[in-house]
Amino acid sequence: MKTLETQTGHSNLPTDDGSVIGIQDDLDLIKNYLTPAFMKKYTVFSCLDDFLQSAGFSADTQQDFESIPVTMMDTWVHQNSTFPNWSEMVSSAGDFYFDTQMKAIKFKSL
């Protein structure tokens, strides 16, 4: 069974029934990366909260966020963004965030 490796080194372990415990990414970090600009560019949603609420997910707290099953999030991401899964979306959001920050300080690549 596929598990989601988080940036903190944790992974979601399958339970006895084969389901996945949930996403264990840091919610505050995710909210910083999945900015409104990113969400508007890669989804039809204007912000992460709208994206999650439209799927029926709650992310009011870290615990709420961690309870979202990875397989359900992967399906939602695939259906409602340009990404195949949650991991790819978060990875791209990190790249987008970095590029945006570099442009903000007028960093020019060599």
Topology (elements, then pairings):
Elements: H1 27-33, H2 36-42, H3 48-54, H4 62-66, H5 70-80, H6 86-104
Protein traits:
single chain; 110 residues; mainly alpha; 51% helix
Describe the structure.
By secondary structure, this protein is mostly helical. It has one domain (27-104). It contains six helices and no strands. The radius of gyration is 15 Å and the shape is globular. The chain starts with 26 loop residues before the first helix and ends in a 6-residue tail after the last helix. Residues 1-21 have low confidence and may be disordered.
> What is the radius of gyration?
15 Å
Counting DSSP H or I runs of 4 or more residues, the number of helices is: 6
Describe the sheet with the most strands. Answer: none
The unreliable regions are 1-21
Overall number of strands: 0
**Average pLDDT:** 81
Proportion of β residues?
under 5%
Helix and strand composition category: mainly alpha
Principal-axes geometry comes out as globular
Number of domains: 1
Output the helix-strand order: HHHHHH
Fraction in helix: 40-55%
- N/C terminus separation: 42 Å
Concise description?
The chain is an all-alpha fold.
